[in-house]
Design goal:
Elements (H helix, E strand, L loop, with lengths): L6 E5 L6 H11 L3 E3 L2 E3 L13 E3 L2 H9 L3 E7 L2 E6 H9 L3 E5 L2 H10 L4 E6 L3 H11 L4 H17 L5 E4 L3 H15 L3 H4 L1 H11 L1
Parallel strand pairs: 1-7, 1-8, 2-7, 3-4, 8-9
Antiparallel strand pairs: 3-6, 5-6
The structure holds adenosine-5'-diphosphate (ADP) and guanosine-5'-monophosphate.
């Protein structure tokens, strides 16, 4: 892989299936890298440190912010989350498409800094279905679920800067759409216009 990888930002309400659809798309492709975030929230049963998140203290989080080690960061329903900068930059240089699963405020920061980032918002078929998925996942208390549904409604209002919306109804279809968007992002005119000039120059020399 020689070309620089894309930065792929995936947002959407908690429980919509972002992790599931990213994991499914990654099963079929070896050009994706998932950026593991740091968070101050507690690990859910089954979550692994360094795989799902780096679980850190509020003091460690504050130190990383202070040192400029986070590409973006935001708080979400009582906890802090952030994207370690170095990993993203290194993997993109290595040619991987780096996938960030981040909420809307952090995504807005990335969009401002890097307008070329691919911005995808994932929605459920309905908010009733979202509530059911959160309940069935069984990782949050009813009170936390209410907080996340409230935040989902706010995020719908703020999500005006995304380029793509994926409706996660059938997971396989959603994963295929995700993969197709990334593939298409590599075919952009801006990325390929050198073919117009270079092939002509080669032909004429
Ligand atoms: P997120 O990462 O957005 O918080 P998850 O990937 O953890 O969401 O998914 C939340 C729950 O919904 C999980 O129990 C997952 O198995 C389930 N889920 C994901 N996608 C679908 C889908 N298309 N249809 C039904 N359930 C789904
Ligand atoms: P959860 O606690 O359900 O894993 O994640 C809660 C929310 O935090 C989700 O919307 C998820 O996308 C977001 N999130 C996870 N990591 C980051 C991050 O590094 N930065 C930001 N801004 N949001 C994140």
């Amino acid at each position: 892989m020689s070309k620089k990888g894309k930065l792929i930002v995936v947002s959407g309400p908690s429980g919509v299936g972002k992790s599931s659809l990213i994991a499914k798309a990654m099963e079929k492709r070896n050009d994706f890298c998932f950026s593991v975030s740091v968070t101050t929230r507690e690990a859910r049963p089954g979550e692994k440190d360094g795989e799902d998140y780096f679980f850190i203290s509020r003091e460690q989080f504050a130190r990383m912010v202070e040192a400029g080690e986070l590409l973006e960061h935001a708080s979400y329903v009582g906890n802090d989350y952030g994207t370690p900068r170095a990993y993203v930059e290194q993997k993109r240089e290595d040619g991987f498409n780096v996938v960030l699963d981040i909420e809307v405020q952090g995504a807005g920061q990335v969009h401002e800094m890097m307008p070329e980032a691919v911005m995808i918002f994932v929605v459920p078929p309905s908010l009733e279905e979202l509530e059911q998925r959160l309940t069935l996942r069984g990782t949050e208390t009813p009170e936390k679920i209410r907080g996340r549904l409230q935040r989902a409604k706010e995020e719908y209002q703020q999500a005006v800067f995304y380029q793509y919306i994926i409706v996660n109804d059938d997971l396989a279809v959603a994963a295929d759409e995700f993969s197709a968007i990334v593939t298409a992002s590599h075919c952009l005119y801006e990325d390929r216009k050198n073919y117009l000039t270079e092939s002509q120059e080669r032909y004429e020399s």
